[in-house]
Design goal:
451 residues; Immunoglobulin-like; 3 domains; 6-stranded mixed sheet; 4-stranded antiparallel sheet; secreted; disulfide bond; vWFA_dom_sf
Length: 451
């Protein structure tokens, strides 16, 4: 048998064994990485909200495996100027990090989040701040949804450097911009939670952070309807072997695509895939020095344009909502827009009834500014989102057919002739059950009959 034929048969057999699960990936080990908490400490946050968020971050950090050879944590404040509360190498346990977070004082000032993100990038990769080269980087940004400067460009720079971005919004903010800013898929990395219910997501968020900190695992990022990027730790070197990467639809394993990569490769981007489809991925390290077991992963591509939509995710225990679906979100805004494209800056909920409520927004922009508005709303506890179109020049509408005693996330979006959109979101609650009205007494002299 020819040598290259034997090699091909051996490789095919190994891939088949890997797909069948006969060979398992390496056992999970303690996570390792640098975790940076970005806390909105500006004057736009009330003292009560700041204290609740500070308590949440402390609870989130306390059980984490922090230590010299494990996780390192740092806290940076958002204000007029960014400020480091403590660097990565100051605390070596979850308990001491929790105490340091609880002792943090609100800085006040303006909400220059973009400036703080640029500063966070420097801190995450600066050895002087205690950051370590070659370990996973995770940023957890807790915000009330507002910023005085653009967050898109510095956030994209962080993602380009491989930083995993988690965003927790306490019920306000632009869903389009926050979905674009968080790591993909948005349903895993973006949470909308009322400030009093932050504890609901603590366990799930902590687990997601730990998953991102386990560098021995093959993992996916930048998931789109047509592809995703795969990354893995350096298991080989250029001289010790090579990788064979295989991706196949879970329902059609016989249509697998393969790619051979050098031993010093640590990532690869697949494109040309089908939307809304499960794909099985196998990474096979072929080494002439030592045995390195294959790694497995299942990735689901996002919905495409034709079937895309905003979906509401069900929180672990309650109404803590998450905005899902990175595709079909409309134009994503980075940088500033023309003055005439100012979107809604304030949402007012009024006339709340068990099955309806009124939504108003300001400023009221005329037809010369916006082509139209649309209001999208859906229950935070899970369920389908609905949409109402509002003509240009109007700044209010009544939402009908709601459920009594239910929390909703309402998003008002202004659409402009340039194709851009600007949006703002707010939480709204309908009161409990229909109130029965007492019978109206008949008018005097009617003999008990209604006129």
């Amino acid at each position: 048998m020819l040598p290259w034929t034997a090699l091909g048969l051996a490789l095919s057999l190994r891939l088949a064994l890997a797909r069948s699960g006969a060979e398992r990936g390496p056992p999970a080990s303690a996570p390792q990485g640098d975790l940076l908490f970005l806390l909105d400490s500006s004057a736009s946050v009330s003292h009560y909200e700041f204290s609740r968020v500070r308590e949440f971050l402390g609870q989130l950090a306390a059980p984490l495996p922090l230590g010299p050879e494990a996780l390192h944590a740092s806290l940076v404040h958002v204000g007029s100027q960014p400020h480091t509360e403590f660097p990565f190498n100051q605390h070596s346990s979850g308990a001491t990090v929790q105490d340091a977070i609880r002792a943090a004082a609100q800085r006040m000032g303006d909400t220059n989040t973009g400036l703080a993100l640029a500063y966070a990038k420097e801190q995450l990769f600066a050895e002087a701040a205690g950051a370590r080269p070659g370990v996973p980087k995770v940023l957890v940004w807790v915000t009330d949804g507002g910023s005085s400067d653009p967050v898109g460009p510095p956030m994209q720079e962080l993602k380009d450097l491989g930083v995993t971005i988690f965003i927790v919004s306490t019920g306000r903010g632009n869903l389009l911009e926050l979905s674009a800013a968080a790591s993909a898929p948005a349903q895993k990395h973006l949470h909308f939670v009322d400030v009093d219910d932050l504890h609901i997501i603590a366990r799930e968020l902590r687990g997601s952070i730990l998953d991102a900190m386990r560098p021995q695992h093959l993992h996916a990022s930048e998931v789109t309807p047509s592809g995703f990027r795969l990354a893995w730790p350096p298991l080989l070197t250029a001289d010790s072997g090579y990788y064979v990467l295989e991706v196949a639809p879970s329902a059609e394993p016989g249509t697998a695509r393969r790619q051979q990569l050098p031993g010093n490769a640590t990532d690869w981007a697949w494109d040309g895939l089908d939307p809304d489809t499960d794909y099985d991925v196998v990474l096979v390290p072929e080494s002439n020095v030592r045995l390195v077991r294959p790694q497995h992963l299942r990735v689901r591509t996002l919905l495409g344009e034709a079937g895309s939509g905003r979906r509401w995710g069900l929180g672990p225990r309650g109404w803590a909502g998450r905005w899902g679906g990175g595709a079909g979100l409309g134009p994503r805004l980075t940088g500033s827009s023309p003055a005439e494209e100012a979107g809604p800056e304030r949402i007012v909920i009024s006339h709340a009834r068990p099955r309806s409520l009124r939504v108003s927004w300001a400023p009221a922009l005329g037809p010369a500014a916006a082509l139209s508005y649309h209001v999208q709303f859906g229950p935070l506890g899970g369920g389908a989102a609905q949409r109402v179109e509002v003509p240009a020049g109007r700044n209010s509408t009544t939402l009908q057919g709601l459920a009594p005693g239910t929390a909703y996330l309402v998003t008002v979006t202004a659409a402009f002739r340039s194709g851009r959109e600007r949006a703002l979101s707010a939480k709204a609650c309908t009161p409990d059950g229909e109130r029965s009205r007492p019978p109206r007494p008949p008018p005097p002299g009617s003999g008990g009959r209604e006129p």
